[in-house]
Amino acid sequence: MPLSSTDPAVIALGGILIALAGITAATATIRWVGQRREEAASLGAIDFVRTSFASRLAHGEAMDDLLPEAVEALRDSLKLGDAAIWLAEGSELRLAVSDPKREAPGIPLVQNIETIAANARVSGRPWARTWLPELLPPGDESALRIAPVSVSGQLLGLIAIQRVGHEDRLAAEADATLEELARELGAALKRQRLDSALHESMAQLRRQADDLQASRARIVAVADAERRRIERDLHDGAQQYLVAIAVKVGLAKELADGDPWRSKALLDDLGRDTQSALDELRNLAHGIYPQLLGSNGLCDALAAACRRAALPTELEAAEIGRYRPAVEAAVYFCCLEALQNAAKYAGSSATARVALWEEAGGLLFEVSDNGAGFDAEPSNAGAGLTNMSDRLGAVGGRLSIDSQPGKGTRVKGAIPLVEDHAKPSP
């Protein structure tokens, strides 16, 4: 049968349909390939987060070694222009690592911004423009995604990525990866900070244990030295008077009948020697524990000490009560030591001040002078300052020294108090 006149049109239409079908298939193929590439890129970054990053963190690799690899994996997998991780340190965000490497100033974090960032989801340029405009480079309109790194409402850092192109496409490709990386990084940072805090606490406990052991050794040594001093003072002072008294008593007995006038003179000497022995014993007892401190308390004892001080000294004492003997003795002897140091080093034209008061459940004192001052580094602490610190430490207190050359010295102490003031020993 011969072909009709419409056959060429039918043939042309069929060709057009075939061409459209081919174009449609090619377009679908291109889209499929692009989607597969995007999925592969995202999968590559997620694989790094789930396997390499997480497992290596679990095996104890340093965070500083893994963070550069994390941003490199993000940039390569997602074809980014820039990838960066910021860490929250104190009251600011600090750029910890970036690819490509760059420097950036810290970003201050006020409290409300920190709270908003800690509870935000992965966000883009509009969010950053409102809350953290410092993250936006001037004149740069690249697509931006920001993933907060937080644990239990605490902001630990941010992950920020940029790429030229539409932000919605970057969000579709990257947000799932960023969320997972932020979770892993947040858990790791929290563990790291807890470990650091634990190590610091352990180190502090070790230092305190070493200080306590050294303090106990010094206290034992000081107690032994004090016993030897008392023995010397008794031998060289009161004992000599008592020996002389015993000898003169014997002589007085022998002369009582044959030479009564000489016997009377010896008895007069015995009276004077006895008084001298009593004075010597009182002075010795004063060095061990002042009688006025035991009977009247800190205010009266310190007032007497200020009157005896080598420098003109003023006492400012609030209304305070009585405390355990150990507490009163620690404060009294620390103030005495501080006044003696001021007399030695402050200068003859200096004046001193002693203050004593209660505050916030503690007994506080301060001995200050307007003299020469000194470099108050811990390494410069002498035996006197060490003894004061040991005295206060024995009753749970603490000592601090504030001094600079030419600006005087302030010795401050604080002792925590129990609820009820302990009565002094009778």
Q: Structural class, from helix and strand content? A: alpha+beta
Biggest sheet architecture: 5 strands, antiparallel
Rg, nearest Å: 42 Å
Give the spatial strand order of the biggest sheet: 3-2-1-5-4
Number of helices: 10
The CATH H-level superfamily of the largest domain is GAF domain
In the CATH hierarchy, the architecture of the largest domain is 2-Layer Sandwich
> How much β-strand is present in the residues?
15-25%
Order of helices and strands: HHEEEHHEEHHHHEHEEHEE
| Overall form | rod-shaped
The overall average pLDDT, rounded, is: 79
Describe this structure in words.
With 426 residues, this protein is an alpha+beta fold. It folds into 2 domains: 19-198, GAF domain (Beta-Lactamase, 2-Layer Sandwich), CATH 3.30.450; 292-416, Heat Shock Protein 90, CATH 3.30.565.10. The chain is built from 10 helices and 10 strands. It has helices spanning 7-58, 63-78, 111-118, 125-131, 167-258, 260-288, 291-296, 298-308, 325-345, 383-394, and strands at residues 82-89, 92-99, 107-108, 143-151, 154-163, 313-317, 352-359, 362-369, 398-403, 409-416. The strands form 2 sheets. A 5-stranded antiparallel sheet has the order 3-2-1-5-4. It has a 5-stranded mixed sheet with strand order 6-7-8-10-9, covered by helices on one side. A hairpin with a 2-residue loop joins strand 4 and strand 5. Residues 32-43 have low confidence and may be disordered.
